[in-house]
Amino acid sequence: MKMNRSFVASIIVLLRGVHEIGTTGENCFTPIEKLETLNTTRSNDEVGAEPGFLFKANLIRLVGSLVDGDKENQDQVRELGALPIILNCTKVDGRNPFIPQCSIVTLKFLLDDNIKNQDYIKTLQKQQ
Predict the structure, then answer these.
(1) Cα→Cα distances 56→39, 64, 73, Å
(2) Which residues of 44-80 are buried (b: 16+ CB within 10 A; e: fewer)?
(3) What is the DSSP letter of 98?
(4) CA–centroid distance for 38 within its chain
(5) What is the pLDDT of residue 25?
């Protein structure tokens, strides 16, 4: 599976789409960054029943599995512009428990022995 570059590209396109949809208003992919809103607006069970629950975190875990020890896949993720998306997912999200941890592990795999990815991360600026 690691050798199939079109599969990696498809996963990145899907991740980008989910990320963009989540930033365009309130929907099942919009991050819940303030966990206290879960208790006031909806229950944990309601969020857990949504179709987007854990979806983004699982996509990032899949990317991590595909890039671990595979320089070509690591490079492809950078070339497709997914590094900033994965970095953005290091924030808390009530719809994706453990997404910060999944993102950090995936970033570790993306940066392992990959100077180009490391240099790319160094050039990024924090956005408000």
Answers:
(1) 22, 12, 19
(2) eeebeeeebbbbbbebbbbbbebbbebeebbebbbeb
(3) T
(4) 21
(5) 83
Q: How far apart are CA 12 and CA 37, in angstroms?
A: 30
Amino acid at 33: E
pTM of the model: 0.84
The model's confidence at residue 9, banded by pLDDT at 50, 70 and 90, is: very high
Cα–Cα distance, 1 to 15 (Å, whole number): 18
Of residues 23 and 106, more confidently modeled: 106
For residues 12 and 17, what is the distance between their CA atoms, to the nearest angstrom? 8
Closest by CA position to 65, among listed 103, 97, 7, 109: 109
